[in-house]
């Protein structure tokens, strides 16, 4: 399924250093990073045209909220929540209620980010927690 083909990823994060590192890591894992955005506006403008398989969204976008962005994806773009993975350096437990109500497929700690982890989430083979 997705593991057999290059996974097309779009990453939204306000930290330029993380964007560069994440792109390098994912491309080494066989993913194609089709776009990067550091603000809500950039993400909303670009995501439909780039048609990613998955969108990785940092929960904290500086003065903006990644949770608000994923809700806007649902209302303003063709990106379905099943193609969104929220990412953060914060522990999953610290984000509990916000994650539970967010229209996203899953949460992935930035320290666990990899092409394999994303494929497991999308294929439904990721282990919970």
From TrEMBL:
Superkingdom of the source species: Bacteria
Keyword rRNA processing in record: no
Keywords: Phosphoprotein
Gene3D superfamilies named among the record's database cross-references: 3.40.50.2300
4-aspartylphosphate: residues carrying this PTM: 58
InterPro entries tied to this protein: Bact_response_regulator, CheY-like_superfamily, NreC/VraR/RcsB-like_REC, Sig_transdc_resp-reg_receiver
PROSITE patterns in UniProt: RESPONSE_REGULATORY
Annotated SMART domains: REC
Pfam family, one: Response_reg
Record carries keyword Disulfide bond: no
Residues in Response regulatory domain copies: 8-125
Entry protein name: Response regulator
């Amino acid at each position: 399924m997705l593991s057999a083909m290059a996974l097309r990823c779009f990453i939204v994060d306000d930290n330029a250093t993380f964007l560069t590192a994440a792109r390098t890591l994912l491309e080494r894992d066989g993913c194609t990073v089709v776009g990067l955005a550091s603000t809500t506006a950039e993400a909303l403008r670009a995501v439909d045209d780039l048609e990613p398989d998955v969108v990785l969204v940092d929960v904290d976008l500086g003065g903006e909220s990644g949770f608000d962005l994923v809700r806007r994806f649902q209302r303003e773009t063709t990106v379905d929540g099943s193609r969104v993975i929220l990412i953060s350096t914060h522990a999953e437990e610290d984000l509990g209620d916000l994650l539970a109500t967010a229209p996203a497929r899953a949460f992935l700690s930035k320290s666990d980010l990899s092409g394999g982890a994303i494929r497991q989430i999308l294929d439904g083979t990721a282990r919970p927690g």
